[in-house]
Design brief:
Rossmann fold; 8 helices
């Protein structure tokens, strides 16, 4: 008998290579606008407030996906055409859905063995759903839960309780949470008394 029946998958940097897509989007935007792009830009981008900081406290869900890019422009003292740069970056990120290596094979194996699979993601609903819908993994899930749609966010226990109460499993020990972030996925699973990886 298998240990779990249900798996909750995080989206960004778990299923999707969001960090890689961000760098590729920055490069495209900088080159389009004649701004120099190199290792120094990547270093400046990586020297930023972590993603998780934008999921705590009050925030504008849509602005979450441009805030780190805006911070990069600030770090590089880029002042001209800022709104166009931000709009171009957001447009590219709306189309970003590079699937991490091995993800399709793992999902197919789990589905073949009868697991129920769900995406559990923080973020702006339209942004996240459009990225998922246009990806090659869209049809592999039994449901999608985006924080913006029910005003609860990881790592709150309430977020995971909301999701758990809407899946066909009554035993918490049969649910596994899979994610990359200690401060949202893992902490959230611990808060909700769910196993995590």
């Amino acid at each position: 008998m298998k240990r779990y029946n249900v798996v909750f998958f995080d989206l960004d940097d778990t299923l999707f290579d969001t960090s890689g897509d961000e760098i590729r989007a920055i490069e495209a935007v900088f080159k389009k606008h004649g701004l120099p792009f190199g290792a120094d830009v990547v270093d400046a981008y990586n020297n930023r407030t972590p993603w998780q900081a934008f999921t705590l406290g009050e925030y504008d869900a849509k602005a979450e996906f441009t805030a780190r890019f805006v911070q990069l422009l600030d770090n590089l003292s880029v002042k001209d055409n800022r709104q166009q740069l931000i709009d171009d970056y957001f447009e590219l990120m709306e189309q970003s859905n590079t699937v991490n290596e091995g993800v399709c094979e793992v999902l197919d194996e789990l589905k073949a063995n009868g697991y129920k699979l769900y995406i559990t993601a923080n973020g702006y609903s339209d942004f996240q759903r459009n990225r998922i819908a246009s990806s090659k993994i869209a049809d592999r899930f039994d449901g999608i839960f985006i924080s913006d749609e029910f005003d609860l966010r990881k790592p709150s226990r309430a977020y995971f309780d909301y999701v758990f109460n809407r899946v066909p499993e009554s035993n918490r020990s049969k649910v596994l949470v899979v994610g990359d972030a200690q401060s949202t996925d893992i902490l959230g699973a611990n808060n909700a008394k769910l196993d995590c990886c």
